[in-house]
Amino acid sequence: MGEEDDCRCRPLGFLLGLPFAVIALVLSVVGIVIWIIGTVLSCLCPCFVCCAGLANLAMDLIKMPIKVIRCFIDQIPC
User: Which parts pass through the membrane (predicted)?
Assistant: First the structure.
C-alpha cells in the first residue's frame, strides 16, 4: 500500500460528482430508449442508416454516469 493506493480513494470527488451522475443516469435511461428504437428501426429497414448513428449517440448517453463520476474523482488531488 503506497501513495498510489491512497490516490484511488477520493470520496470527496465521488460526493461532488454524485448529483451530476444522477442527472446523467436519467439521461442514460433516455439513451436506452433511443438505442432500442434505433436498433429496431435499423433491423427492420436497412435504409435507416442514420439510426445507427443515433444508436451510437445513445450508447454515449448510457455510459455518461460513469464518465461523470470518473471526471470528478480525477479532478480532486490526492
Answer: 12-37
Distance separating alpha carbons of residues 16 and 22, to the nearest angstrom: 11
- Strand ranges inside the chain, DSSP E: none
What's the pTM? Answer: 0.60
For residue 76, which of 5, 7, 4, 2 has the smallest C-alpha distance?
7
Residue/partner pairs of 5-10 with CB below 8 Å, 24 or more apart? 6/78, 7/78, 10/73, 10/76, 10/78
Contacts of 30-37 with CB under 8 Å at 24 or more apart are: 30/61, 31/57, 31/58, 31/59, 31/60, 31/61, 31/62, 31/64, 32/58, 32/62, 33/58, 34/58, 34/61, 35/59, 35/62
